[in-house]
Design goal:
The structure is a homodimer. Chain A has 10 helices and no strands. By secondary structure, chain A is an all-alpha fold. The longest helix of chain A is centred in the N-terminal third of the chain and has 27 residues. The N and C termini of chain A lie far apart (about 55 Å). Chain A binds a DNA duplex through helix 1 and helix 3.
DNA sequence: ACACATCCATACCGGTTGGTATGATTCACG
DNA sequence: CGTGAATCATACCAACCGGTATGGATGTGT
């Protein structure tokens, strides 16, 4: 009960910090706003986090990374036909995206663009996530090759990195244009790109 | 001589502001730093720009937009074979990119990710650039269709937007990974995507 | 040569920022 | 029951921010 209570307030701070950072970016994220959202005060926050910097890192690791792990990496790892799962994940994101989602953009992408040239620790931490992402897609593509859904001559390494890039890019332009339509259009094109890695144009994908 | 001198200091402020914003983002861009770079003082800056906000807009219009116009839009508009020109522009950017270029990322993309959800005027101004960009590529693709370099069934509207998205996405991940190699790899994949819009896989592109 | 506008430097201001020092309250444990 | 550690609130601070008011210097038109 004791540790539960303390962990709960820590989580509350973490969650509010994530929201503030998602809305305003890390540098513009106001400690005061985070505390106002939680109803707590500075004493609480600086009890759990030594500085704003550490709070940011905790958000990256325990919110962003964890969320991505659950929503993308894990499903890709455990899927029987991971290429289809990849397309499926894109489809889900495209369908469930609403005005606010698009307006705020991808939390990881936002932080990367803002912080990577300014702070090496942030940069390293986020690059780790990026590489995990790329690896997850890479594995999916390689398995896809074994299942004859991806052509053998495809450079899965480069393709995986490009898919991550394009994925973040789709978020980026949709965010600026504030258009869910643009987002879905872009995701569809990205799906088409993945399909273009398959054998002879326009055939279905079912397994061996 | 008079107007020349005043315009010169205005340009100097504009250039320094662009640099500061490119490095730190708009919100974190310090007026003091901009002035330190130019050797001027606040009196000068606030003589030419009523507020930081207006300075930011001027940077977007007179530096970013103008630069893009000269380096991308105009060449695409005037090229005889615009699809090849598009591939060529990508190639140039990939080859000339160095550590610093990649580290700081695309100025427009940086600003979009930071400011579009925070300021409607910024957002509108940048969306205009984005649409001009998309239109430039769209026209290139349509002409490419007429020249049998792009398949007739390709949705040029969607493809153009996707190319812009992926382009910015390549900048984004390369920026975070701080890797010119990753950037070039992504651009190559993007070029392959454009080529995949052409007739029957892997054939050359020369005209009719 | 006088008046006036342009151009820019200096000094200053209110507000916000992240961070800290201190103290009150509560809880775990002997 | 009491003692020390964990948990959080309050008050405060120096630094920095964008912005303004004022004034001096320079040139320009008449």
């Amino acid at each position: 009960m004791d540790t539960k209570q303390s962990d709960l307030t820590r989580e509350k701070i973490l969650h509010a910090a994530f929201g503030e950072i998602h809305r305003n970016g890390f540098q513009a994220a106001s400690i005061a706003n985070i505390l106002a959202d939680t109803g707590l005060t500075k004493g609480a926050l600086y009890h759990y986090f030594p500085a704003k910097h550490a709070l940011g890192l905790a958000v990256i690791d325990e919110v962003i990374r964890a969320g991505l792990e659950e929503m993308v990496f894990s499903p890709l790892r455990e899927a029987e036909y991971p290429v289809e799962e990849l397309l499926n994940i894109m489809q889900c994101k495209a369908e469930y995206a609403d005005e606010d989602t698009v307006r705020l953009g991808c939390p990881l992408n936002n932080l990367m663009q803002e912080m990577s040239p300014l702070d090496d620790v942030f940069q390293a931490r986020m690059t780790l996530i990026l590489k995990a992402w790329k690896t997850a897609i890479f594995n999916a593509l390689v398995i896809g090759q074994r299942q004859h859904q991806i052509r053998p001559d495809v450079d899965c390494e480069a393709a995986a990195l490009f898919i991550v890039s394009a994925w973040e890019g789709c978020w980026g332009v949709a965010k600026n244009m504030q258009s869910v339509h643009a987002f879905r259009s872009c995701i569809t094109q990205l799906q088409d790109y993945v399909l273009s890695l398959g054998p002879r144009p326009g055939l279905e994908m079912k397994a061996s």
